[in-house]
Amino acid sequence: MNTNTTDFESLSLSNPGTERGWKSKLGLGLGFLGLFILLLAFFEINLPNQSLFLTISLLSIAVGIVFYTLDLYKNHPAGIKNNGVWLKDFTNGGTWAWILGVVLTIFYVLLYWFPETVGQGASGKANSGLVALFDPLSQLLKNQPASQWFVYGVLYTLAILGLGIKFIYKYRHNKYQIVRTISVMFFQLGFAFLLPEFLLRLNQPFNDFKNMWPLNYYFFDEWHLKELINSGGMGIFMLVFGIAMIFIISPILTYFYGKRWYCSWVCGCGGLAETAGDPFRQLSNKRLSAWKFERWLIHAVLVFSVLMTIAVIFTFLTRNPELSIITRDQFTWGISIFLLLVAGVIYLFKKDGFDKNIRNIILSIVVIIVGVLLINTFSDAKNIFFIESYKLRSWYGFAVGSAFSGVIGVGFYPLLGNRVWCRFGCPMAAILGLQQRLFSRFRITTNGGQCISCGNCSTYCEMGIDVRSYAQRGENIVRSSCVGCGICSAVCPRGVLKLENGSLENRINSDAVLLGNDVDLLSLIRNQKSA
Amino acid sequence: MQHIVIIGNGISGITAARHIRKLSQNRITVISGETDYFFSRTALMYVYMGHLKFEHTQPYENWFWKQNNIDLVRGFVTKVDTQKKALTLDRSQVIQYDKLILATGSKPNKFGWPGQNLDGVIGMYHKQDLDALETHTDRCKRAVIVGGGLIGIELAEMLRSRNKEVTFLVREESFWNGVLPPEESDMINRHIREHHIDLRLNTNLEEIIPDEAGLVKAVKTDKGDVIPCEVVGLTAGVSPNIDFLKGSGIELNRGILVNRHLETNIPDVYAIGDCAEQREPIGERRAIEAVWYTGRMMGETVARTICGNRIPYNPGHWFNSAKFLDIEYQTYGWVWAQPKENENQFYWEHPDGKKAIRFVYDKNHRTLLGVNSFGIRLRHEFFDKALTENWSIDKIINQLKAANFDPEFYSTYEKNIKAAFQKSAQTVS
User: Fold this and answer.
1) For the residues A95-109, what does the mean pLDDT come to?
2) What is the Cα–Cα distance from B50 to B158, expressed in whole angstroms?
């Protein structure tokens, strides 16, 4: 038998890097050490030097993630790294996913509704436990003790930064993913975390400039408006900027780039979903029934959110006429006329080849909102929607702001996927989505007839869009829910999908004919349609 | 209303069924012995690799078929009686048809190797092959793959994803060099080895050796090497799956012989997809094209013929795609492994050795004939147009930017390619 040495070498050398090495064990160890310190603090174990322990905890989590990442991907050439996703308990909704889901959910429940259990000092008392552990960092940044929200902000930012690094290394062959991820890391660290804390230090109102209404549902709250109006130039700037974001900046950016400029490049919820939530993106429900449910729910939340906001402003105008430049009657009529105008313009300009569903959705939304406003006006009720505005506001805060976006939105990552909130609940995503479908240059282009219907795009779409159903017909994908994360394009093994900003002409090409067959199908289809 | 029966629920048969439904109210029955529902065969590898669950490979939800009034029947057709227009299913049930579409696909080639039917020897074509591979996975430390084509390299990738050691026997002196020119083929050789696959070129399988229990124990190559292994993957091409048609009167060669209208010699019997063999090959195309895209096109064509608009199968410009581990491959028009007499070629390769592009054009007219691209995505529409309108190579080189389909922010190489083109004096522009 002729066995030469090179054969033996290739036999023995052919399987390196399959066992996790010391680096990933060290990484996991460090990560758990960091979390263990947080757990000790949570259980009110007295840690002698809080600054030191906090530093160790946060650093070891960050370093742990980096070590783990290196070991996970380093021995493999750059490329798609989805091996075993559906075979692992953690990422296929198995036992470990349930355990993580329960832990996250408990964390959110305590954070939102039982802050004292995490150590938030009640009514001016000193913090204890977990919150107290973060006091030194809070003092350093803004000369104030920490709150449960500060703790949450630090951990949230750490998650986006650490797991953002992991995401970048995982997709290191894909520059769109790298740039996009650096963007969400930057906006989380700079705009969501550091800038607001520095503003507080400078005795200015706390403000996250990128967090716009209606995602930021307290923007028009009485306390917030008063705070801004009473804080001089900076406060007024924040107020004007916030309103400009809603009515000018966002529509312009969405026109040019689609909603992705916000949802997967800037937004904090999106930032967490894209980084920490990335291992769970495949869990989103792709069924047609889920899409139907999504459209009902997200637009219902949008209506709820608009009505709540109108009610809150209405009350503000009633109570603070001296702070206002318009009366409450002008306001309700103004809103009604504005909405009807918007609906009218859409109806007129989008009459041809118009997506019936979207038109009905927009008309329904406007009719409901204006209807409620008018009923109120003519029945001379004191409150919009016949309910005290603060009650409406507190229901919204509880049901949408906390339970939906936090507990379900993040707590259920490992079970329902990483974009449940963005897909089913976020009123901001709903508005941007309606615009994206109607007035935007953004689309995902399908490359001729190259689709092989494999299903990677649909499976890894975190928004549950059945991307394949369009791609295999050669159609572009223009869906209101698409956040433009670009993963469908990344995982496509045949290079079929490309995110593009192009002309509005033929953007929605539902007449598309798969390239390949040399028959004049297009004219055939048109003849059938006109027949 | 006619009863259209389609044997085979792959891309060809299902495309035919869908288009017949769009065009008519005919009764449609699709028969499959493989699975209950249509799935994407090209995606089977991703199920084993854990990228997808099997259900994700099904492009339509299960309610789709009932809603569109397409009957699905599970079973193997054992006999076709073209006189009585009747099929026998699993030797008992009889189904009558008015029109019959044969879309039975392929089966993996076996070349009579000793031991080729042992437990642990698998192909990679059917859903059942995937299931068989799964059952042997736990005891598998090393697998040997025989046959250096597209399925072979996919099977190698699959096994590597589950941390199996893989030896890859390729008969040719370089991977897939019957199709790929030497530079591209060599690029893939290197990439295969980068993935720690023990690639053995110029090597044939002699026999598969069983252990006492009749399981695969090792393979012996024509070099005399004995390679211990638990799984052997036979991926030496496929051939039409037509054995059940012998004696039916339907004319067979290697495949089911059809004319340009995809009609067999028997009236009301059609054949499409992998199992069909063109009596007169179309252009440069092979008589049997076992390709996803051509199956889809034939399905579309036959549907129109059956629904009263008899048209010939008239595929446009050839295109194809594949992915070799991490390197994506697209091709438009014709690029042969060896240039033909009237052809000039221009090849550019990125220094990282993972991106390359090759243009083939006519020596005299300078019109584009074909393009191969590795690691750079190209726009199908662009090249379809360029080939149809006989664009010159110079025009192509100048307009490469519009041909690019890579994601945003990717580095572009149009300038480098153009500079190299000019430097090699294939001319400027």
Assistant:
1) 96
2) 9
